[in-house]
Amino acid sequence: MNKFDDQATKALLEKNLITENQYQEITSYRNLNIFSLNAELKLFLYLSILLFTSGIGVLIYNNIDSIGHIAILSLLLIVIGVCFYFCFKNSKGFSKSETTFEHPVLEYLVLAANILTCIFIGYLQFQYQPFGTHYGLATLIPTVVSFFCAYYFDNKSVLTIAITGLAAYVGLSVSPQDLVNNINFHQDQTLSYSAIVLGVLLILWTIYSNRIQLKTHFNIIYLTFALHIISIATISSLLEYFEQGIWLLFVVVLAASSYYFYKISHELKAISLYVFMIIYAYIGLNIFIVRIFENIDFSDVWVLFIMILPVYFIGSIIMFIKLIKTFNKEIAA
What we know:
By secondary structure, the protein is mostly helical.
């Protein structure tokens, strides 16, 4: 038993929350050094699902001419049907509160069925184009299926697929690297507004979900996506559209977003939201400062400016560490 656990148990005993006999039983149990493999087994299950679905994709790619399109689609449909059959058979049904399967393997079966459904619809559209030139439908349909599965089976992994599909439907790529490097995102200013609107809608949905008590444990996922989408969209726009005179709008949006996520991270005690909020706000602040002073001639004081920079960055690191420590103390209180 480690020192931290021992101190925590003694604190419970001193507060009379447990009896001396219970303390001895807890100590004896922990001295057995028994540990759980639950997290490791779930990780292997998750990796197995990813490898399985990836393997199907490779199989299709390498044997598309020899197997035949109808055979591949039929095989996919059969596997999807079998997966959903066991999922629905063992599901407890829809509930507004958090639910779980009796066997954790079924959670990953839902994930496999959902990924295979996305592969099936994408392959069907690519090969036979049942939706014609309405390519957005090929994204929207698996997105709707993903949202249904996420809420019916209470699956967070499927929910991330659903939100990603929703972002793709409106023309966005939700990973930070893709958002920054997406050429269309920079060339089409409307995508900046679409990203911000999508992020705001995700936030509004969490507020509505709290009001009706609908899967409130999903809120952290929605808020994480909203934080990244809004922040990266505004930062990217600050870099791209400064000359058009609308950069101040994105500064206001980023400031409002940072304030909101500062408040909500404390309410949810979510360190991940808090850390990324600080990072995005810091990046935005530095871009704002550079934009303000970029037309100022520092030729006469450039030596002083260079000397101040290391102090500024070191101070920023110290302040970041201090903020994280303060946050941890607040949520632990």
